[in-house]
């Protein structure tokens, strides 16, 4: 599982509340990614990181922010959650020397009521 | 940017039959094409990948073929088994260490 954990694994929240999802890895991987998965859309990239404090936007970044203050943690924040952000969120890492190959964490199911 | 299209969206086969899933991509600069399998409620798992310097790669009952000229690649599963039932995603690399995914194919293998 490439040493990736995500927390929480399930969360139910209300519209307008802030939410932070955590991705933690134990193997010092440089590249980390956040995706959302919705029926009919596959996996879509929200944000990614190529090192501590180095992040960039993906294709569906509106309404999301990220932070990476240390190598092992990549945080995804929904500043004010909306029902359209109900989704399954996956974190991924890529391995040194094979940076285009990605491995996924277990996922977080987020429901915004 | 890169766009990946995947067909069919659902595929039903009998156990022992072969299954083929096809993807097309738009960016001629893409040179890495992984396939993931996702069982219900689980994470996507890498099952096979191919780089643009080869045309075919096999791993037991699964194989991937790549046609760079036509910009399409395919996943072939032979002698399908019920445990092959899952959603399969193709992807292509783009830009800076990023992947763009297809929308997935739900494969159902009936005993």
Strand content of chain A: over 45%
Derived structural class of chain A: mainly beta
Mean pLDDT of chain B: 95
Q: Most extensive interface, residues per chain?
A: A-B, 24 and 23 residues
Low-confidence parts of chain A: none
Helix fraction of chain B by DSSP (H/I, runs of at least 4) = under 10%
Q: How is the biggest beta sheet of chain B arranged?
A: 6 strands, mixed
Shape of chain A: globular
Instruction: Kindly state the number of beta strands of chain B.
Output: 11
Please describe the topology of this protein.
The complex is a heterodimer of chains A (113) and B (111).
Chain A (H helix, E strand, L loop, with lengths): L3 E4 L2 E4 L5 E7 L5 E8 L3 E10 L2 E4 L6 E7 L2 E6 L8 E9 L2 E7 L3 E5 L1
Parallel strand pairs in A: 2-11
Antiparallel strand pairs in A: 1-3, 3-8, 4-5, 4-9, 5-6, 7-8, 9-10, 9-11
Chain B lengths: L3 E4 L2 E5 L4 E7 L6 E7 L6 E7 L4 E4 L2 E6 L4 E6 L8 E9 L3 E4 L3 E6 L1
Parallel strand pairs in B: 2-11
Antiparallel strand pairs in B: 1-3, 3-8, 4-5, 4-9, 6-7, 7-8, 9-10, 9-11
Structure description:
The complex is a heterodimer of chains A (113) and B (111). Helices cover 0% and strands 63% of the residues of chain A. Chain A is built from no helices and 11 strands. In chain A, a hairpin with a 3-residue loop joins β4 and β5. Chain A starts with a strand and ends with a strand. Chain B has 111 residues and is mainly beta. In chain B, the strands form 2 sheets. In chain B, strands 2, 4, 5, 9, 10 and 11 form a 6-stranded mixed beta sheet that branches. The model of chain B has no long low-confidence stretch (mean pLDDT 95). The A-B interface holds A 31, 33, 40-45, 48, 50, 56, 58-59, 90, 94, 99-107 and B 1, 6, 32, 34, 36, 42-46, 49, 89, 91, 93, 96-104.
């Amino acid at each position: 599982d490439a040493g990736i954990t995500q927390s929480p694994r399930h969360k139910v929240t209300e519209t307008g509340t802030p939410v932070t999802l955590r991705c933690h890895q134990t193997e010092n991987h440089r590249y980390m990614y956040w995706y959302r998965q919705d029926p009919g859309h596959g996996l879509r990239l929200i944000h990614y990181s190529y090192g501590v404090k180095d992040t960039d936007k993906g294709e569906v970044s509106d309404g999301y922010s990220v932070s990476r203050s240390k190598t092992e943690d990549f945080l995804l924040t929904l500043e004010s959650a909306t029902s359209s952000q109900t989704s399954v969120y996956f974190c991924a890492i890529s391995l040194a020397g094979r940076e285009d190959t990605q491995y996924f964490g277990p996922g977080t199911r987020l429901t915004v009521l | 940017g890169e766009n990946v299209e995947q067909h069919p969206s659902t595929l039903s086969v009998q156990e022992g039959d072969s299954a083929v899933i096809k993807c097309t991509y738009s960016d001629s600069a893409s040179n890495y094409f992984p396939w993931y399998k996702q069982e219900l409620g689980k994470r996507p798992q890498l099952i096979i990948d191919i780089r643009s310097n080869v045309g075919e790669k096999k791993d037991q009952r699964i194989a991937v073929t790549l046609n760079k000229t036509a910009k399409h690649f395919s996943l072939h599963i032979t002698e399908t088994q019920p445990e092959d039932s899952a959603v399969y995603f193709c992807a292509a690399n783009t830009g800076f260490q990023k992947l763009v995914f297809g929308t997935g194919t739900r494969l159902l293998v009936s005993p």
